[in-house]
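S.,

Sequence below, as promised.
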Amino acid sequence: MEDIKEFFEIFRPRLILHLDGKADKSSGEPGSLEFVDEVLDRWEKFAQGPSLEMPTPSERLFWFALYQLEDLAEFPVTDQPDPYEAILMQNLAQVREILRYGGDIPDEFYATRPGEEPSGF
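The prediction came back faster than expected:
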C-alpha cells in the first residue's frame, strides 16, 4: 500500500458492506470479526512505515465504526438483545451513512487509531 488514502480506499467500502449487513461468503467477504482482524493486521504493517500525520475526523470515524462493528459481532445471537447491543446498533446506523459519504466523526463519538492513546480530552 502506498499511502494512508489508499488504505482507506480499500477498507472503507468493505466496512460499509459489513455495516449494511451485506458481507457474507457469497460476497467473498469474511465474517465481521475476521474482517476486523484483517484491517488491524494490515494497519499494523502499514503503520510501521513513515510517520503519519494526525488522524483526520473522517479517519477517526472509520476507526469508530470498525471498533463498534467488532463489539457488535462479539455478542451472541439471542432472542433478547442486550441493551448495550441496541446502543451499538443505533450508533452504527448513525455513523454508517456519514461513513458512506465521507463525512467526519460526530462530536459525541471518539476513536483513535489502533495502538494510540486517546488525546485531546
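The chain has four helices and no strands.

Coffee later?
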